[in-house]
Amino acid sequence: MGQALWRLPPRQQQQLQEELADRLADQEEGQEQGRDGGPQRRAPQQCYGPDIYHLLRTRIGGKERHGFIDLEMLPPELGITILSYLNATDLCLAGCVWQDLGNDEYLWQGLCKSTWGHCSIYNKRLPAGFSYRRLYLQLDEGCLTFNANAQEGISYFMFRGILVDHPKELAKFIFYTRRLNWKMLRVYLDERRDVLDELVTLHNFSNQFLPNALRDFFRHIHAPEERGEYLETLITKFSHRFCTCNAVLVRDLGLSPDAVYVLCYSLILLSIDLTSPHVKNKMSKREFIRNTRRAAHNVSDDFVGHLYDNIYLIGHVAA
């Protein structure tokens, strides 16, 4: 849609090019006259297409306007992209400058759903007088509260009717939101194992190489900094989910959830070994194959070698 709004007919583009070339030539002529006192004129510079100024001027009927460009003159996709870089305070200030844009409910709806992909309130019948602008501010405040105290943040969302106290709804909200502090999120998931179970089922690891799937998993559910019961729980849940999503591949390779569990631990240890500056003698590919085959007997040397190459070339699985 945005490209269609900016596309102009060739004839109109040529007219804009000629107009811009004439203006540049007039400016240069004035500069030369002021410098030498004589009427000198150089060839105008080549213009390869209309710039954003001329496109905007064309859309507003050729009238000159000074100051900020009105975002209403931009394509909706570009306007939402620009405003998505602002926080709630800056958006309110922008709404004071662009008053019509600040009251556009479709714009605020797009900002809400692009920042928080899932909320229970999206599926409810909205009451009369509902404002997506107010919802945006509440979601922003709720995330700030969550990043300070996870339980208070979730309670805030429930009190405002934004979320429903159901593990699947909470898991979807976490999965499609990127504004939650990962440390507070880790504490919350450690306490709410029912939400963690639903969050794991939202991942689809079909046709993914094991290290890449593990990176994707830890991108949403951050690994703890130390080994412990929580890390073992995460790897166990990941192993079962990976086998469920790749049933045919797992059967062909002779893997099982226990074998995938062992491979995941081997990948984590190899990641630390290869990326840590404190480890001087890095593990070789031959050593990794030998050590892994001792724990996972059904895995082929080629498959384990590909695992090593992935970590060596791409990096840590839980970075």
UniProtKB/TrEMBL annotation:
Residues 1-46 are annotated as: Disordered. SMART domains: Sec7. PROSITE patterns: SEC7. It comes from Pagothenia borchgrevinki. Coiled coil: none annotated. Residues 1-18 have a biased composition (Low complexity). Residues 138-314 form the SEC7 domain. Residues 20-39 have a biased composition (Basic and acidic residues). It comes from the Eukaryota. This is SEC7 domain-containing protein. InterPro entries: F-box-like_dom_sf, F-box_dom, FBXO8_F-box, Sec7_C_sf, Sec7_dom, Sec7_dom_sf. It holds the Pfam family F-box-like. Gene3D superfamilies: 1.10.220.20, 1.20.1280.50, Arf Nucleotide-binding Site Opener,domain 2 (1.10.1000.11).
